[in-house]
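Newbie here. two chains, one complex. Structure please?
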Amino acid sequence: MNKVISDLENSFFTSKKRNEDIKGKLVIGLTQIAVLLIIAILFIILGIIIYQGREKFSWEFISSFPTDGMTKGGIFPALIGTFILVVVMSIAAVPFGTITAIYLTEYARENSKFAAAVRFSIRTLAVVPSIIFGLFGLGFFIQFVGGGIDKTFNGGELHWGQPNIIWASLTMALLTLPVIIVSVEEALKTIPRELREASLALGATKWQTIRKVVFPGSISGIMTGTILAVSRGAGEVAPILFTGAAYYLATLPKSLSDQFMNLGYHVYIMSTQSSDVEKTMPIQFATTLVLLILTLSLNLVAVVIRSRIRRRAK
Amino acid sequence: MNSQLPIKQTFTKESLKKQFRLSEFLAEKIISSVAFLSIAIIFLIFFFVFKESLPLFSFGNDAKAKTEIQTTTGDKPESYGTITEDLKPESYGSETTEELKPESYGTETTEELKPESYGSEPVSNDDLKPEAYGDTPKEDLSVASSDETMDAVSENVDGADRTWDTFLSTEWIPVSDNPRFGLMALLIGTLKVTIISMLIAGPLAILAAVYTSCFASNRRKEIIKPIIEMLAAFPSVVIGFFAMMVLATFFQDVFGYDSRLNAFIGGVAMALAAIPIVYTISEDALSAVPKTYSEASLALGASKSQTAFLVTLPAATPGIFAALLLGVGRVFGETMIALMATGNAALVSVNPFESVRTFAATIGSEMAETVFGETHYSVLFFIGSLLFIFSFALNAIAEFYVKGRLIKKFQGK
């Protein structure tokens, strides 16, 4: 009798177990499919853009001006414009971001309301849609600051109160600020507490400790942050739509009050507002390829540096 | 023993007190004021974006003053309900373009879209028109002479009132003699794209996150995570371009619909932008669930998949909710993909294969055409402030509500 029951129980449990096994495998398979699908999509995008863009992609394409109403030629001015944009942007955003990160890790007390508010604003800054930064650049930098400069110094003549490199770069700097802050903060946190304590115990002041001990340790974090910010800034188009990007310029920008061409903006206008979208297709794909190579390789470098920082932390 | 005494004596309360150093003080003050700037930026962004949309409100207030003289209804023009009833006649009177009115509400009112919102208006117009005619033209001229063109100003003055009226309509025709700013059309378009993209991105990203944090071996995890996060490095203009050139053609061949660029294409493309965000945050949330949870579940005999979906996933729900919220925020405000892949026609329908126009795309495509100070310009900035408030609110919810619950749950407080 007992044997029968235990047999029954056994068969019951094994069949249930088998069912669970199949179900479990299905479920795990489903999650695997999701991962594979995402990775596949990523490589499909990459593959198609490389495949379509390789034809036009050459040194000549990168180093020459667009010709024939942008239906032929290269993207040199767009590349230079993007370069100037990210350089000015980094000059503005990196010190600002580094100092904020130093405040958050070194000065802010555990339960400080102020630090919590700063953190919250940084996270908000990271989720505000990029187009809002464009509007802010137009309303604040161009009309308020630029317009104000024109009114007080140029007697109302329009010079700074219009879209140009400096306003576009500053707008972009605000957008990329959270990226820098987060990276530097992460690097600062990996510096052992003992180092700081040793420095303080030797009689160094807090500021001296930060300057001589903490800051040198955060250089790699600042680099990661800058590279990620540049990668982000080079790819964003929405903030510069109305703060400085130009459709076409025959010459390179000469001063910070000039407009500029931009890679991402170039892709956008070539694919939506060009006179002959079909004909310029290879140029569009090649430009996209250049942009993608730029952002992805920068990102890759940042990931490598970051993983080194993390290893140091361990 | 004796040798230690003098040292002890030097450590008095006085000597242990922090010495005041100017450079230290300055450094701390400067650093915290720079940190304060990031709070200031948030306020500045809202202030300056909202400031440019203020003409909408101030014109409304002017109209309010006028109506108070005429009819002594002290209703606030800001509320939608009262505008359609009280301010309507006044604004129409000052318009003095009789021939535009029947055209705008008679023929162009697509009745099948929203009959109930238009039903009452023509009636009230007819009733009150003659009465309002008498006293307004003089006022109108005096305002008009102060600016360059009659047209632009009259458009501006009554544009404000009319703008508020048309916000709830479903027509977005900003550039015309009789501009209409039907935000509803844009809202529906934006929601449509958002829903489509979250339906795709949500399950995919969460399932992928579950795999990475619960099933994958450490080695696989280290390969998968950076690759998926690499998707976040794709500029949105590249995703938009890809959707427009490749996906649109591909899906049109598969489904055979009419408009090549539509809400579905936009939704798919935006899902690509939302996946890395949802994935990263959900993965973090799942990894943050204490190991003891899953160990207890496995010890009780549950299988790996049961543990993942019945124990770990429910425990991480608040974090996953936050991930979805931030994904929605990203999609809602995404500009370049919307500009390039959604077709940009403000159509109202439930069909996912129709072109739509989103809030962000409207700002992106029309800002360049507007003139500073125009109603259209103000409306675009108003949309901008709406987007800002929305993303701010989403972030605040994700931050406080969700994190608070997570902490409570895991620390058992």
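Moderator note: The mean pLDDT of chain A is 85. Chain A is about 75% helix and 0% strand. Thread marked as resolved.
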